Predict the 3D structure of the following.
Amino acid sequence: MLKKELILQNPLRFLENETGDILLEGGFGAVLARAGVGKTAILVKLALNTILKGKNVLHISLDDPVKKLTLWYKEVFNHLTKQYDSIATNPIWEAILPHRFIMTFRVEGFSTSKLEERLTDLIEQNIFSPQVIIIDGFNFKEDVRASLSDFKRLAKKHSLYVWFSVKTHRHEEPGPDGMPAQILEVADLFDLVIQLQPKGKEIHIKTLKGATADSDQRTLLLDPATMLVRDSESF
């Protein structure tokens, strides 16, 4: 019952389709923001909600060590469940851990072929079989269309949902449709693009592409104190 309550509390549920997923199989999602604004926090929140539904998440970090990411998950989970007794929440935490696998790569050594090799090893040895992959720290500075096209092939082959973090920069002008420069040339490969926009002490979550990417979308904020997503009126 508590697990269901936690799933229903997810403010990003309005992005979900009729199957209860935010992306379609083989689909790409991106979370864009400047350094330190909260990309990893959003991705961890997305991962936890996915895990609570019983799906497996492979979180790949090209920046942070496993220990730091583990702390991220625990901290976000603690904030998410702080209103509940630990006697009730501890078993849920222990139950979801097998549904999460953290993997690290060096940025310069990361490629689709290397990921596919390690993914195949995990699946064939019955160690871990993900439904969702998060790639945190992927380099969007260079021409990445070929690499992303390879990732798209891999995602469709294994029926995966893939999320990327994308670091933007204050000084760079966005494209005519508001899409940041880092993803402008490959935006067609993404089904959903979310941007975190600091405004004073608030961090607004704006959908640039995908569900509700219009003027009528709900106003969501990332709470900088807890790194949780809230409706604007709940702050």
Q: What stands out?
A: Residues 51 and 96 are 6 Å apart (CA to CA). The two ends are 26 Å apart (CA to CA).
